[in-house]
């Protein structure tokens, strides 16, 4: 990390593989890093250490630019996978859901890898985009 006050490197946190994305929590205390070893690491920036890891046996980052995201309140982490699913964990590292497509039999789903996810700042809606050129927005309704 870089300290802008001193213009010097403040700390290093070594991660096990290439980082594909980072997302900072709204309070600025936590950072998630999606890693090419098919994990997402949770870092506490106040302690300068890894405090959590998110993974699943079927979860695979699809590319070098796969993007994970905190929800607005920082209680959940979502990331797309090469299997076409979106994985959602709570910050304790427990898998809460996998999303394939819209409900009610619409037939809309990612048929290929999901590259990026983004939470709506005003609700729990989640936008996703995949290699199949499809954007899907998941809502609670």
TrEMBL record:
GO terms for molecular function: protein-membrane adaptor activity. It comes from the Eukaryota. GO terms for cellular component: Atg12-Atg5-Atg16 complex; autophagosome membrane; phagophore assembly site membrane. Pfam families: WD40. SUPFAM superfamilies: WD40 repeat-like (SSF50978). One of its GO terms (biological process) is autophagosome assembly. PANTHER family: AUTOPHAGY PROTEIN 16-LIKE, AUTOPHAGY-RELATED 16, ISOFORM F. This is Autophagy-related protein 16-1. The lineage of its organism: Eukaryota, Metazoa, Ecdysozoa, Arthropoda, Hexapoda. The gene is Atg16l1.
